[in-house]
Design a protein that fits this description.
The complex is a heterodimer. Chain A has 19 helices and 11 strands. Chain A is an alpha/beta fold. Chain A folds into 3 domains: about 5-90, no CATH class; about 125-315, Rossmann fold, CATH 3.40.50; about 315-390, Arc Repressor Mutant, subunit A (Orthogonal Bundle), CATH 1.10.10. In chain A, the strands form 2 sheets. Chain A has a 9-stranded mixed sheet with strand order 1-2-6-5-4-3-7-8-9, with helices on both faces. The longest helix of chain A has 16 residues, at about 70-85. Chain B folds into 3 domains: about 1-190, Ribosomal Protein S5, domain 2 (2-Layer Sandwich); about 200-445, 3-Layer(aba) Sandwich (Rossmann fold), CATH 3.40.50; about 455-525, Helicase, Ruva Protein, domain 3. In chain B, about 50% of the residues are buried. Chain B contains 23 helices and 16 strands. Classes of the chains: A alpha/beta, B alpha/beta. The interface between A and B is large, with 43 and 40 residues.
Chain lengths: ~400, ~525
């Protein structure tokens, strides 16, 4: 946060410092902070409130806590911490600030302040893309597909930077040149999960990280459900790409519904346990996310035609014959048709093609070679020697 | 009176010729043995004393001194019993010193004066022959093993008396006795016994063409291979079938392998080993069992698998430190052991076959059954270090054949559901392996390289030449599939074998594509 953007934080420096101090007083929770600021008519005036007013607003026990926290030594320590965070590129965004997201302000238990790194998104609309941590190839494909299309159209993609769908959506949004926000369940200077380190670094540079918890807070299971209300709170719409019948993702969906957000789910096959939760959501009235365009229309936005073309091409960016040489394109097309978003072994594909009557079936060796060719073109992916369709153009 | 007899000792896999010197002279009656002896050799005194009495030989009431030279080498094992006992008999003048000329005596004694088999007879006889000894008196149980060396005339004895009787005879009579013993041994060995059947025939495995192709390729080029798949997919069966398609051992290799097994005391009934060894240690195996342990180390798993297959079932369950032991032998084909007893170099040129599940539960990427997190999968496979994975050329995923799949297979080829696909049973596959090996032998004649799987980086450039088209393909592949130079070398080695299997002189794009496929299987483990 340097240069011109820094000014935005300099304007209300005193009020920011006062709120920061208030948030750090021991024994004073978020609700008390809110009440105090409202009662005093501004964060700067809290320190001058009389004992009587404090007792009226907070009760005796908390008033004592605030009296203790009001000592100059405590205040100076809090200010020093604020400046340290600012030096480390961490911003502090209290609820009364103009930059505080409007949507988030509307939910019942909005966080009294957010800590963040990176730059706040400028986009008008935001969509949360959430789903299972252990996602299938289909789920990760769907997350990539929707995140890239939404981001390219100017929608901010909100996620939790968790393993699986969250992380994939965040990466895809940044790849597509869009904006992305990750809401963490720990301090913004802690990277959790550690395997998403790359995404964490990218979000600081190209997107934004926010958290309700002060820096240095270690991740813990009890913090994550509260984090979910911010994910949906920051968004106009929540998209579930993959969830089991009993999935933590559904907690976020419930919160989103309480907050009045639209919920969409990507349908899956009835045989896929990973899509059970999504199908159930659709059955219960969630929107069916069959293409990004539907979501964009819901948000009152237009699809970005250039971006669409770009995404469609990204997979097969290479000219086919650079990877194929003498390869028979019709044969490759047939193999491509036999592929699926679910991983399939080469032998399965071989047997499928052997059943087709109209054309001579290729040998297993030929299929192996063609599959590798498809991987090189970026049209197929491979996991443990089984192949699946990547970036299908529907 | 003094006399000396040749005998053999073992030091690691190597044997040396030792002298048993016995002196019986005036003095306080006692029986002393010297020469840096291990406790089992010192204990021989009691065995010998009783055995001599039971053989009807009186222990002289004089001072008996036995020295086993060279006195600087630590001596272990029970092979010294018989020569010491015979020496005591001779030192009393009951045998002429000339009857030991050019004779090597070795064997363990029982209290009833019987002679029991010992370990390491084959290397002992080989070393004796090298040093100009032609006649050997060995336990009858080791006779067939000793007779494997054609240059040696070997006598098998059952008891101490028989040994003494033999040594008293002259050349002609000894010949007759040897023939008699050989006949006796042959009768006991039962030559009618059929050859052991191969454990697994690939003809018994239905479908699994992709995996069989991987097995075929690995056997043809002696490439290390890793099978990955869910439980019950047939990974173990695939690996167990490998000896059935590997070419049989060459005569020189047979001697080499049999000598190792002889030292380990694992030579079956003194027969020469004909099948390629297949060693499958349990995943709890300790490091010293894997590498070879003891002050003078016994051959470990890597040495027992020499010229054959070392199979690690459930590779990800092995301790990482144990697996990393394999790196050096896989690179050099030998293992260097520095132990209390000195430095030892044991041969360990094996082909590594391994099986592993893709994740802790075994069903990834089938997300209907597997809920392992990417982190768990990563942890599971982090036991196998990258450098070890780098030495595995082929990585093949194995998918279980469902019952209905079997059924369909039968329907499509009416009438013979249970007959193997043509060309994919062990016999036919071995023929293809042999043909491919012949091409390799022809190409590498006189270079010291035996197989494609042992090509080094420099050799690869020389022998895995690519045409212009192929080179462009490979460049493209290494970029879009993120192959490092080392990974490209592996792909080229495998492609060379695939070309050899097809009888093609040049590596084609098809071969490269298949080789790339067999590299892709392990990719998820490298993230």
């Amino acid at each position: 946060m340097k240069g011109q953007e820094g000014n935005e934080w300099e304007e209300d420096r005193e009020a920011l410092l006062e709120t920061f101090w208030l948030c750090s007083v021991r024994g004073i929770g978020p609700v008390s902070v809110r009440r105090l600021v409202e009662a005093a008519g501004g964060a700067t005036r809290v320190k001058d409130l009389s004992r009587k007013t404090l007792e009226e607003v907070l009760g005796a026990a908390r008033a004592d806590a605030l009296e203790r926290g009001r000592q100059e030594k405590q205040r100076q320590a809090a200010f020093a911490r604020y400046y340290k965070y600012r030096r480390n590129g961490i911003f502090f965004l209290p609820f009364w600030h103009a930059a505080y997201p409007k949507r988030l302000r509307q939910i019942a238990d909005f966080p009294v302040a957010l800590y963040g790194r990176g730059k706040l998104p400028r986009g008008k609309k935001a969509a949360a893309i959430i789903g299972a941590r252990e996602c299938s190839a289909y789920g990760s494909w769907a997350a990539r597909h929707f995140a890239a299309a939404l981001a390219a159209a100017g929608v901010t993609v909100v996620s939790g930077m968790a393993r699986g769908v969250d992380g994939i959506a965040g990466r895809a949004a940044l790849d597509a040149g869009g904006e992305s926000v990750a809401v963490l369940g720990c301090g913004v200077d802690v990277c959790y999960p550690p395997e998403n380190r790359d995404l964490y670094e990218r979000l600081i540079r190209e997107g934004c990280l926010v958290s309700e918890y002060p820096p240095d807070t270690e991740p813990s299971a009890r913090l994550f459900p509260a984090r979910n209300r911010i994910i949906s709170g920051l968004s106009d719409l929540v998209l579930v790409t993959e969830a089991r019948e009993k999935s933590g993702t559904l907690i976020t969906v419930d919160l989103a519904l309480e907050q009045g957000r639209d919920v969409f789910a990507v349908p899956g096959r009835i045989t896929d346990a990973c899509s059970g939760g999504c199908n159930r959501l659709i059955e219960n009235g969630a929107g069916m996310a069959t293409e990004p365009g539907r979501l964009l229309r819901e948000l009152g936005m237009e699809e970005n035609p250039d971006a669409k073309a770009q995404i469609g091409q990204r997979g097969s960016g290479r000219p086919p014959d650079a990877c194929g040489k003498n390869a028979d394109q019709t044969q490759r097309t047939r193999i491509l048709r036999a592929l699926d978003t679910q991983p399939k072994g080469p032998e399965e594909i071989w047997e499928t093609l052997a059943e087709e009557q109209d054309a001579p079936s290729p040998s297993l060796e030929e299929i192996l070679q063609e599959l590798i060719g498809l991987c090189m073109e970026g049209r197929a992916g491979c996991a443990f020697g089984r192949y699946f369709l990547k970036d299908a153009g529907f | 009176m003094y006399c000396h007899i040749h005998t053999g000792g073992l030091r690691g896999l190597e044997s040396y010729v030792a002298q048993v010197e016995v002196d019986v002279s005036m003095g306080l009656p006692c029986f002393e043995m010297v020469g840096l002896l291990a406790s089992e050799v010192k204990e021989a005194r009691e065995r010998i004393r009783v055995a001599l009495r039971n053989a009807g030989v009186k222990m002289p009431a004089e001072k008996i001194t036995v020295n086993i030279s060279p006195a600087g080498i630590h001596k272990a094992g029970t092979a010294f019993d018989l020569p010491v006992a015979v020496g005591i008999v001779a030192a009393q003048g009951m045998l002429l010193p000339t009857c030991f000329a050019g004779v090597l005596v070795a064997g363990e004694l029982g209290l009833d004066a019987s002679v029991k088999p010992i370990r390491g007879v084959l290397p002992m006889v080989l070393e004796g022959v090298r040093q100009g000894i032609t006649e050997f008196v060995l336990p009858l149980g080791n006779l067939s093993e000793g007779m494997l060396v054609e240059e040696a005339s070997v006598m098998g004895v059952e008891s101490l008396e028989e040994a003494i009787r033999y040594l008293r005879c002259d050349g002609q009579e000894r010949e007759t006795m040897r023939k008699k013993a050989a006949l006796q041994r042959k009768a006991a060995d039962n030559p009618e016994e059929p050859d052991e059947r191969e454990e697994v025939d690939y003809g018994d495995l239905y479908g699994m063409r992709e995996a069989k192709l991987a097995a075929l390729t690995s056997a043809a080029g002696f490439h290390n291979v890793l099978f990955i798949g869910p439980p019950g997919a047939g990974k173990t069966m695939l690996a167990r079938g490998l000896p059935s398609i590997l070419p049989p051992l060459e005569p020189a290799e047979r001697r080499e392998v049999s000598a190792i097994y002889s030292v380990a005391g694992r030579l079956p009934k003194g027969k020469l080993i004909r099948r390629r060894p297949f060693v499958s240690p349990h995943h709890t195996v300790s490091g010293s069992a894997m590498a070879g342990g003891g002050t003078v180390p016994m051959p470990g798993m890597v040495t027992l698998a020499h010229r054959g297959v070392l199979f690690l079932d459930e590779m990800a369950q092995f301790r990482r430190a144990t697996l990393d032991i394999l790196r050096q032998p896989m690179e050099d084909g030998r293992i260097f052991l520095a132990k209390g007893g000195g430095h030892f170099v044991y041969p360990a040129d094996f082909m590594l076959a391994a099986s592993a599940n893709p994740c802790p539960c075994g069903f990834y990427p089938d997300r209907n059954r597997c809920r392992c997190t990417p982190w768990e999968i990563h942890q599971y496979f982090s036991r196998i270090s990258g450098p070890l994975l780098d030495r595995i050329d082929l990585c093949c995923s194995v998918q279980p054949v469902s019952f209905s799949g079997l059924w369909d297979l039968g329907r499509r080829r009416p009438g013979n559901a249970l007959q193997a696909e043509k060309g994919w049973d062990s016999a036919a596959m071995r023929e293809r392996v042999m043909a491919a090996r012949e091409r390799q032998a022809h190409r590498y004649a006189g270079t010291g390289i035996a197989v494609n799987g042992r090509l080094r980086a420099g050799d690869i450039l020389r022998y895995c030449r690519l045409g212009e088209k192929e080179q462009r393909y490979m460049e493209e592949a290494s970029q879009s599939l993120h192959c490092s130079a080392r990974a490209c070398h592996r792909v080229l080695r495998v492609a060379r074998t695939l070309a050899d299997l097809e009888g093609a002189e040049e590596i084609g794009i098809g071969h490269l594509g298949q080789a790339l496929h067999y590299r892709k299987g392990e990719e998820p483990y490298r993230t």
